[in-house]
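Sample intake sheet
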Amino acid sequence: MIKQQMKIGPKGQVVIPKVFRKLMGVTPGSTVVFELKEGGVLIEKPTTNAVEIFDRIAKSGKHVEIEPHKPYEEELEYRWKKLKK
């Protein structure tokens, strides 16, 4: 199990340690989900919901370029890492 202690900044912000960002595949601009658990907070990378993404794109009326395999590959990698725990 990997543990790392970080300080909370004056605005209540905490930097996610690099080792965790790398393992989770989160980068600047990524979304994470916080869940309050007994004794702590769980931070997860949300699963990709393709229907919601395409619905948002369709409603925006804008042309959007996407990398179709990237979200799928990220999700597979995330699930694989979760299974290894």
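Comment: The mean pLDDT is 86. The beta strands are 33-37, 40-44.
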